[in-house]
Design a protein that fits this description.
The complex is a heterodimer of chains A (about 180) and B (about 190). Chain A is an alpha/beta fold and about 180 residues long. In chain A, about 30% of the residues lie in helices and about 30% in strands. Chain A contains six helices and nine strands, in the order ααββααβαββββαββ. In chain A, α2 crosses α4. Chain A is globular, with a radius of gyration of 16 Å. The two termini of chain A are about 15 Å apart. Chain B has about 190 residues and is an alpha/beta fold. Helix content of chain B is about 25%, strand content about 30%. Chain B contains five helices and ten strands, in the order αββααβαββββαβββ. In chain B, the strands form three sheets. Chain B has a six-stranded mixed beta sheet with strand order 4-3-7-8-10-9. A two-stranded antiparallel sheet of chain B has the order 1-2. The radius of gyration of chain B is 16 Å and the shape is globular. Classes of the chains: A alpha/beta (about 180), B alpha/beta (about 190). The interface between A and B is large, with 38 and 37 residues. Chain A: Pathway: Purine metabolism; AMP biosynthesis via salvage pathway; AMP from adenine: step 1/1.
């Protein structure tokens, strides 16, 4: 599902604000930089509004955001829909007791952590990040929430790179994005 | 200055915000009583109240830039920016921001660290506030102030949820006012 396909009139303004930076962090990668979107208050507000309109009134009590750019979009959505915000972080950043989920990178692996007790069994949750590429990080995030007994209702990202087929790696969970980049 | 001593005396929201913050002893090292704001984020009312207090303070000050220190500054800055119609500018550790950046080094207890900001994000003459979750030594915030001043912005104030009691009264950081909601919990 994507607002891109639905052609909401706000999408064009959002898409044009995203800057592509070639060869970052490594040669060959066309990095989708959302910081330029954050410099445009109207486009940033439209971005949040699109997600809030979709998720308000759907009994979602948890918005989980992936460090660090998920921290920019997740909290405004959580606050507007009446949900709590749960940060999902790289290792050793969260104090106290955590659960960990390892995931595979192109080279090597990484790990995502969530606080024990942040989420209760039966809660309905969203996972938010700025972008989905291969889907590895989002899948790890979903696993953390499901291990705590939550129901992942949907994954929400500003940008999708459809050629990397991340959508297919989400265990059948729906993905909602605002823009696609090929 | 602390909110409870300047304009928000007796405001019940402040106690609820303080109560929602969890103390984790000996993190990241022995002897440190870590002020964990993640429990505040789980309390929708207290989290919203935190942001409302900052928004009410800054909405009519002609602020066009909210700069937030990665990563916990990202949990507060964007919502404030959205509510007051300002842009949000992330200040990040090295190698996180793509494209051209300016860097400011600062001193830690052991060694140095560095904060970066995008070239072109902030224009000369813009009025800015800087947000982080907590101020301790002020090293990170001082580096943030220097970054914004180097591009000609005017730093109106630095705002933190938590601050050490040393920052009471008219204490200024690099000459800039500091606005804090609560003290650390024991």
């Amino acid at each position: 599902m994507s607002a891109f396909r639905d052609q909401d009139p706000r999408i064009h303004g959002i898409q044009t604000k995203i800057r592509v930076v070639p060869d970052f962090p490594r040669e060959g990668i066309m990095f989708q930089d959302i910081t330029t979107l954050l410099l445009d208050p109207k486009a940033f507000k439209d971005t949040i509004d699109l997600f809030v309109e979709r998720y308000k009134g759907k009994n979602i009590s948890v918005v989980a955001g992936i460090e660090a750019r998920g921290f920019i979009f997740g909290p405004p959505i959580a606050l507007a829909i009446g949900a709590k915000f749960v940060p999902l972080r790289k290792p050793k950043k969260l104090p106290g007791e955590v659960i960990k989920e390892e995931y595979v990178l192109e080279y090597g692996s990484d790990c995502l952590e969530m606080h024990v007790g942040a989420v209760s069994a039966g809660e309905r949750a969203l996972v938010v990040d700025d972008l989905i590429a291969t889907g590895g990080t989002l899948r790890a995030a979903m696993n953390l929430l499901e291990r705590a007994g939550a129901e992942v209702v949907e994954c929400a990202c500003v940008i999708e790179l459809p050629d990397l087929k991340g959508r297919e790696r989400l265990n059948g969970k729906p993905l909602y994005v605002l823009v696609e980049s090929h | 200055m602390f909110a409870g001593e300047h304009g928000l005396q007796g405001d019940p929201r402040l106690k609820a915000i303080s109560d929602a913050i969890r103390v984790v002893p000996h993190f990241p090292k022995s002897g440190i009583m870590f002020q964990d704001i993640t429990t505040l984020l789980l309390d929708h009312k207290a989290y919203k109240d935190t942001l409302d207090i900052f928004v009410d303070r800054y909405r009519d000050m002609g602020i066009s830039v909210v700069a937030g220190v990665e990563a916990r500054g990202f949990l507060f800055g964007p919502s404030i920016a959205l509510a007051i119609g300002a842009k949000f500018v992330p200040l990040s550790k090295p190698s996180k921001l793509p494209g051209e950046v300016i860097s400011e080094e600062y001193v830690l207890e052991y060694g140095n660290d560095c904060l970066e900001m995008h070239v072109g994000a902030v224009k000369h003459g813009e009025r800015a506030i800087i947000i982080d979750d907590l101020v301790a030594t002020g090293g990170t915030l001082s580096a943030a102030i220097r970054l914004l001043e180097r591009v000609g912005a005017e730093v109106v104030e630095c705002a933190c949820v938590i601050g050490l009691p040393e920052f009471k009264g008219q204490f200024r950081l690099n000459g800039k006012p500091l606005y804090i909601l609560v003290e650390p919990r024991q």
